[in-house]
Design goal:
By secondary structure, the protein is an alpha/beta fold. Helices cover 29% and strands 22% of the residues. It has a five-stranded mixed β-sheet. Strands 16, 17, 19, 20 and 21 form a five-stranded antiparallel β-sheet that branches. α11 links the parallel β11 and β12 (308-312). It is globular, with a radius of gyration of 25 Å. It starts with a helix and ends with a helix.
Length: 592
C-alpha cells in the first residue's frame, strides 16, 4: 500500500489537472506483471480449423475406437461419423443454410450427439432446448433464433405438441429415410469464423438471451483443455451436464476431439449417489466434470478411479477439493458462456480457498475499476476477459453486445468481455472469486438473472409488487426467495404453477414471503436490506399442523435440516417445499 500511495502522489505531481480516475498508483513493474506476466498464455492451436475438421481428424486416427457408451449401447468413431453424415445430408435436403439455427430438443443419449455433429457438418448452428422448459420459453427461443428446423423424438411429441415450427423432425420416426442418405461427409463451405452454437442464458430484461459462439472460439478452448488434462484415447470421460447447459458441450467435445470414450450417465439416475459411484466404477471413468453442489455430496474416497476431476459453475467445496487434490489431479474452472465455456482454471495447492486460477490458453484476464483502469494485486476489481474464446455477441441484442463486449483498453482492435464478476489477483498470479457486482446469481450451477424472475412474477395475476433475491440455506446453497405484495391472501402453489408456464423449474422461487407493502429507499427503490429473512412460514401458506407420529417427527427433522428452516408441517407438499434432486439425494441417505 505504501508503494501504491507513493506512486499515486507521483501521478498527482506529474498531472495535477488529471481526473482522479486517471491517476495511476501502479508502478511500472506491477503494471507489466498484470498486463504481461499474468497473461502469458500464447499457444499455437489450429485456429483455422472448425470443430468438423477436428472431429474428422480424430475419426481418421482411430475409426474403430469406441466413441459413445450409453445404457449398454456403444458407437465407434466411424459409426458416429457416418450416422451424423447421414443426418447432415437429411438436413441439407431440407434446405438448411450455413449459419442457420437448428433447435435440438432431445434427452441425453447417442441421438443427441449425432444431432449436434450433423448440424455442425451441415454448416448449421446448434441450439439446445431442454424438453422440460415451459412451452412459452421454447416458443420464444424458436422465434428469437429464427429456428425453422427442430430435431426431437417421438416420446416428446405430447410435450411439444403446442410448438409451431416449419420442420419438426422426429429423428427416430424418420430413421429409415435418414439411413438412406450418403455416409460420406457433405461438402460445404465452412470456416472457423462461422457460428457453432447458440446457448440461451437468463436475461435481466425478462427474456433469455442467446450467446453466439464461433467454431474458432470453442475450438481454442477444447484444444487447450485436451492438452492441459492430457486426454487421450485411453480415457473414459463422463457426460454429466444437462444438454441445455454449455458444460455439456465442453464434456462432449473434450471427449470426442481427444479420441476418448464418452460415457453418458442416465439423466434420471445421475443424482443418486450410490448409482453414480457404481457407474463411475463400472464405466472406469477417468475424467469427470462435476457441479460443486453434487461434488459436495460425494465421499472423495469412492472416486479413486477418477484420475482428473474438474469442478465448475459455482464456488468449489473446499474440503472435498482439498481431499481429492491429494490423490488425483483436481482443477477448478471458471468461465461464462460468453467466453466459450472456460476462461480461467486452477490446478495447484489448495490452502485456505479454492481459486479460479489463471487465464486458459490464448485468453487474457484483467481486473479493472469503473474507469477501466487496472487495480493492484490483492485489490478487488471487475473480471474482464479477452482472447480467442470471446463470443461474437448476443443474438438480436446489439446494444447489450456493445455494453458487455467493449474495446480492449490495452490492445488496439481487440475486445474485452465484462463478466460482472468481482475477483482479486493473488501474488502467485491466480484469481480469487469475490462475488457479483449486479443481480445475477448462481443456483445449483445455473446462471440466473433475478430481473428475469421478477419480470415473470410481476406478470402473474394478483401480484402488485415483487422482489426476488437469492438466500443461502444452512448448507450454503442458494435458493430463490420471492417477496410479494398481492391483492389477496398469498397462494404459493398457484403462483408457482403460473410461473412454471413461463420459467424453467430451477428459476421458480422456492420461498415466498407476503408483505403489506414493499420497503423503499429514499430514492424510491426497493430497500433490499430491509426485507425480512425467510423462515419456516415462507415455505407454506397453509395453517401449521405439527408432525404427529415418531416417523413424521423424524422425517420433518430431516427436511428441516436439509431446507434450513425451523418447521415443516404435515400437509406441506414435498416439491413445493423447494426440494430438488440434490436435496432428495441427501434426504434418501438420511432416511436410510
Amino acid at each position: 500500500m505504501f508503494i501504491h500511495y507513493q506512486e499515486l502522489l507521483t501521478s498527482i505531481v506529474a498531472s495535477p489537472s488529471a481526473p482522479l480516475s486517471k491517476l495511476s498508483m501502479l508502478p511500472a513493474e506491477e503494471r507489466h506483471q498484470l498486463l504481461e506476466v499474468f497473461n502469458e498464455t500464447s499457444a499455437g492451436y489450429a485456429t483455422d480449423k472448425t470443430l468438423v475438421d477436428l472431429f474428422a481428424e480424430q475419426v481418421k486416427r482411430a475409426p474403430s475406437a469406441t466413441a459413445i457408451a450409453f445404457e449398454g449401447e456403444t458407437l465407434t468413431y466411424q459409426a458416429l461419423d457416418e450416422q451424423s453424415n447421414q443426418l447432415a445430408h437429411h438436413l441439407l435436403a431440407k434446405g438448411l443454410a450455413t449459419e442457420e439455427a437448428v433447435g435440438v430438443c432431445l434427452e441425453r443419449g447417442p441421438a443427441l450427439i449425432i444431432s449436434i455433429l450433423a448440424i455442425l457438418k451441415s454448416g448449421g448452428v446448434y441450439v439446445p432446448i431442454d424438453p422440460a422448459y415451459p412451452v412459452d420459453r421454447i416458443s420464444y427461443m424458436l422465434e428469437d433464433a429464427s429456428i425453422g428446423i427442430l430435431l426431437s423424438s417421438s416420446d416428446l411429441t405430447d410435450q411439444l405438441s403446442a410448438i409451431a415450427v416449419k420442420e419438426h423432425i422426429l429423428v427416430d420416426a424418420v430413421a429409415t429415410a435418414i439411413q438412406a442418405e450418403s455416409r460420406a461427409a457433405p461438402v460445404i463451405d465452412l470456416s472457423a469464423s462461422n457460428l457453432a452454437y447458440i446457448i440461451y442464458t437468463s436475461g435481466s430484461t425478462g427474456k433469455p438471451k442467446g450467446v453466439l459462439i464461433e467454431h474458432a472460439g470453442i475450438g481454442n478452448t477444447i484444444q487447450g483443455q485436451i492438452d492441459l488434462f492430457s486426454l487421450s484415447g485411453n480415457d473414459h470421460c463422463l457426460q454429466y451436464a444437462s444438454p441445455s447447459f454449455d458444460a455439456s458441450i465442453w464434456e462432449i467435445l473434450l471427449s470426442l476431439l481427444s479420441g476418448a470414450q464418452l460415457c453418458i450417465i442416465p439423466e434420471s439416475q445421475k443424482y443418486e449417489v450410490d448409482y453414480f459411484v457404481d457407474y463411475v466404477a463400472q464405466q472406469a471413468i477417468s475424467f469427470a466434470t462435476l457441479p460443486p453442489a453434487f461434488f459436495k455430496l460425494l465421499d472423495v474416497r469412492q472416486l479413486s478411479g477418477i484420475k482428473t476431476l474438474v469442478t465448475a459453475g459455482e464456488e468449489a467445496p473446499y474440503n472435498n477439493a482439498k481431499a481429492f487434490s491429494q490423490t488425483g489431479r483436481y482443477f477448478n474452472a471458471y468461465g461464462p458462456t460468453e467466453t466459450s465455456i472456460c476462461a480461467t482454471i486452477y490446478h495447484g495447492e489448495i490452502d485456505r480457498t479454492v481459486p479460479i486460477g489463471s487465464p486458459v490458453a490464448n485468453a487474457s484476464a484483467y481486473l479493472l475499476n469503473q474507469a477501466m483502469e487496472l487495480v493492484p494485486v490483492g485489490a478487488v476489481g471487475e473480471l474482464c476477459v479477452g482472447g480467442a474464446g470471446l463470443a461474437r455477441g448476443y443474438l438480436n441484442r446489439e446494444s447489450l453486445t456493445q455494453e458487455c463486449f467493449v474495446p480492449h483498453p490495452f490492445k488496439a482492435g481487440a475486445r474485452l468481455y465484462k463478466t460482472g464478476d468481482l475477483a482479486r489477483w493473488r501474488p502467485d498470479g491466480s484469481l480469487e472469486f469475490m462475488g457479483r457486482k449486479d443481480s445475477q446469481v448462481k443456483v445449483r450451477g445455473y446462471r440466473i438473472e433475478l430481473g428475469e424472475v421478477e419480470h415473470a412474477v410481476s406478470l402473474v395475476q394478483g401480484v402488485q409488487q415483487c422482489c426476488v433475491l437469492a438466500s443461502a440455506d444452512s448448507h450454503g446453497q442458494n435458493r430463490l426467495v420471492a417477496y410479494v405484495v398481492t391483492a389477496a391472501e398469498l397462494d404459493k402453489e398457484a403462483l408457482q404453477a403460473a410461473l412454471r408456464e413461463r420459467l424453467p423449474e430451477y428459476m421458480v422461487p422456492q420461498l415466498w414471503i407476503q408483505l403489506d407493502e414493499m420497503p423503499l429507499t429514499s430514492s424510491g427503490k426497493v430497500d433490499k436490506k430491509a426485507l425480512p429473512e425467510p423462515d419456516g412460514s415462507a415455505l407454506s401458506s397453509k395453517e401449521y399442523v405439527a408432525p404427529r407420529t415418531e416417523t413424521e417427527k423424524q422425517l420433518a427433522a430431516i427436511w428441516q435440516e436439509l431446507l434450513g428452516v425451523d418447521q415443516v408441517e404435515v400437509h406441506d407438499y414435498y416439491f413445493e417445499l423447494g426440494v430438488h434432486s440434490l436435496i432428495a439425494t441427501r434426504q434418501d441417505s438420511k432416511i436410510r
